[in-house]
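Format is chain and fold; as here:
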Amino acid sequence: MSISKLGIISKPLLSTPRPSNKTLITLPFTAFLQLVKLSKALADAETAIALSPEWEKGYFRKGCILEAMERYDDALAAFHTALQFNPKSAEVSRKIKRITQLVKDKKRAQEVENLKSNINMAKHLEKLKTEMSDKYGSEEGWEEMFSFLVETMETAVKCWHESSKVDPRVYFLLDKEKTETDKYAPMVNIDKAFESPHTHSNCFLYLRQYAEDSFSRAACLVTPKSIISYPQVWKGQGPRKWRHGQQDGFFVQFETAFLRKLWFVPSSNEQGQMLCRDPEILDIGAHEVLPRLYKEKRSSS
C-alpha cells in the first residue's frame, strides 16, 4: 500500500485538534490496518482453496477470517464446506455451533432493539377505543382521553426500557377551561402509597379529592409491581388468582367517570436489555391497585 493512500486516511485526523489522549487518534487507523490485514488473509485463504479445493484447512481458515470480520453467514458457509471434507472434525463442529448461536443472538438483539424503538400502545388498545366510542357516543373529548392513555403508557414503556423502572405516579387529564393550573399539576407522585393499608387509604382519599377539585376528566396510575407492599393484588386466591406469572413489570390503571381499566405490563431481560412485553388486561374488580377515583356516571348513549 502506498504512503499517499495512507495519507488520505490519516489526513482528517491530522487536521483536527489533537486530544490529550493520543489513543483517540490511533484507534480509527488501527481499525483500518486490522481490516487490511484481514482482507489480505482472506485473499490468501482464497488462493489456498483455489490451489487445493478439497483441503479442509483452507475452508477452516477462510471461516475464521470471515468470523473475525463479523461476516457470520459467509463464515458458516465456509465451515460447512470444511465439514464436508472432514465430517469428524470436532473443531469445525464447535465453530459451526458457536457461530450459529452468534447469528441467533445477533438476530434476536436486533429484534429487541426494533421492539424497543417502535412502541405502539394504540394497537393493543383497539378494543378499548371501540368501547369508549360506544360509551361516550357523540360526546366530545373521549378521543382526547384515549390519546392521554396511549401517551402515558408509551412514556412509561420508554422509561422502563431506559432505566428498568418507572416512578409511581398518577397522571391527570385536566380540563383546559376549568382547572386552576397554577394550583393543580397534571401529575402526582405516590411513592409512599403502597407501604401499608394506612398509607394506601390516605393516598386514595387524597387522589379522589384531587381528581374532583382539579376538574380532571381522566386519570392514569403507573406503578412498578416491585414497590407494592399493599395491596399485593397478585397473591389472591379463587377468582382473584393471579394468572400472569412471576415476571417483573408495572401496572397501569385508567380511571374515568364512565369506565375503569387495568393492565399489567410484564418485563423480561432479552440479550442484556430490559424489554416490555405486550400489556395484559386484568379484571379490575379482582386486581385494582386503587379504588375508584371518580364518581360513577352512566353514559348518555
Observations:
- The chain has two domains: 3-116, 121-287.
- The beta strands are 169-173, 187-189, 218-224, 248-255, 260-270, 273-276, 280-282.
- Residues 136 and 184 are 26 Å apart (CA to CA).
